[in-house]
Amino acid sequence: MRVLAALSGGVDSAVAAARAVEAGHDVVGVHMALSRTPAATRAGARGCCSIEDASDARWAAEILGIPFYVWDLSQEFTERVVADFLAEYRAGRTPNPCVRCNERIKFDALLERARALGFDAVATGHYARLRGGAAAGRPGSTQGLELRRAADGAKDQSYVLAVSGGTGLSRALFPLGDAPSKSAVRAEAERRGLPVADKPDSYDICFVADGDTRGFLARSLGTEPGTMVSPEGEVLGTHEGYFGFTVGQRRGLGLTRPAPDGRPRYVLQTRPAANEVVVGPAELLSRSTVAGDGLVLLAEPEELGAALGWRGVSVQVRAHGRAVGADVVIDPEASTLSAELHEPVRGIAAGQSLVVYASAPPGDGDQVLAQATIT
Predict the structure, then answer these.
(1) Which residues pair with 326 in a beta bridge?
(2) Is 9 marked within a binding site?
(3) What's the rounded Cα separation, in Å, for the pair 174 and 202?
(4) Assigned domain for 321 exists
(5) Which pLDDT score is estimated for 46?
(6) Position 213 in a domain
(7) How far is CA 240 from each of CA 38, 233, 243, 259, 318, rounded to the nearest angstrom?
(8) Residue 38: is the preceding peptide bond cis (ω within 30°)?
(9) In this structure, are 84 and 35 located in the same domain?
(10) Residue 199 — pLDDT band, cuts 50, 70, 90?
């Protein structure tokens, strides 16, 4: 197959490209330039996609002996990821920009260009397993397509990939899905002579160069002084904008008066219309039901009487969270999902991704059944 290897400049994508070459594919490397911000350099950034990453990607491609290009996707990234991030916070939700980047850039904009140029598939350094589609030599076919957790549960990225859906995933290759650990991938990079073997992992939001998300939101959305209230409506303090807070947050509330019982307060809810932030005790953060929309189905649902869904599965409600047992009901026509959790979960935030896995508790290689955005 003709494979476009997305080279971020890190060790994972470099080893993934090397494995694609070794598998006999006709591989071309491409680095996605997502930022035109001068601060997006290794010295000033904590996330991925820095300016220097393009040089590291080019170096890896030269060692692998594959053609290499840099594609400017900064406009698409700004319009499809950054603008969505700001709009979601403005609406009082807490988005996951990595989920949107995978959906709208790596498996939308990148795949669009790859297909227009005659490529069969895109290979990335994600940690997840795929069955069917390009992974089985049938790019574009969703028949028998399955997305599963990676062999290395600590690095598994199926949570952020689920939103990409069958169409995008059918043309994806994840050569690192069976890698036993990140240390093993680094050792493989060293054996192959790849210069990024010891490069640190990226973290934080790539377009927030200094890691100060609240500051980025204030600079982008301005300030809107409002009140911080108790669940009963008592005014406890003020804030500079509800969009600077997220459900479950404890630090940075700026309250000078402690709770009557002396216990810490947490953000329970933001109310955009009233510009209020509701704070209260930890026990009010727990939820046993979750609803979502924008349903993405990656497996056929079961019949549950008059409804559709799955019993005895598990759901994950944040990227690095623990999956919990649940019963899930879906409405394909309305593109919605509701989950009854087998145990309460704290700090569930609207705007985050909810991913349904095939068993409870999750086991190695669990299949992804569905995804939705928490409402």
Answers:
(1) 313, 341
(2) yes
(3) 19
(4) yes
(5) 45
(6) no
(7) 28, 18, 9, 21, 26
(8) no
(9) yes
(10) confident
Residue with the two structure tokens 């060790």: 11
By three-state DSSP, how is residue 185 classified? helix
The verdict on whether residue 8 carries a ligand-binding annotation is yes
Token duo for residue 335: 């593109």
| Residue 141 and residue 43 in one domain | yes
Residues 264 and 298 in one domain: no
> Is 109 in the same domain as 171?
yes
pLDDT tens digit sequence for 341-371: 999 999 899 999 999 999 755 454 599 999 9
Residue 274 belongs to domain spanning: 223-280
- 11 among the known binding-site residues? yes
Same domain, 33 and 174: yes
Question: Do 71 and 111 share a domain, yes or no?
Answer: yes
Coarse DSSP helix, strand, coil percentages of the chain, rounded to the nearest 5 percent: 30, 30, 45
First-to-last alpha carbon distance for the chain, in angstroms, is 40
Residue with tokens 């303090």: 237
Active-site hit among 48, 49, 98, 206: 206
* Residue 206, domain member (yes or no): no
Residue 36 in tokens: 């035109």
Which of the residues 48, 49, 98, 101 is marked catalytic?
A: 101
The answer to whether 10 is annotated as binding is yes
In a domain, residue 210? The reply is no
- Let me know if 206 is a catalytic residue: yes
Number of domains in the chain: 3
Angle between helices 11-22 and 51-64 (to 10 degrees): 20
Mapping DSSP to helix (H, G, I), strand (E, B) and coil, where does residue 184 land?
A: helix
Q: Is 48 a catalytic residue?
A: no
**Ligand-binding site membership of 12 (annotated):** yes
Looking at the DSSP bridge assignments, the partners of residue 50 are none
Instruction: Identify which has the larger pLDDT, 119 or 254.
Output: 119
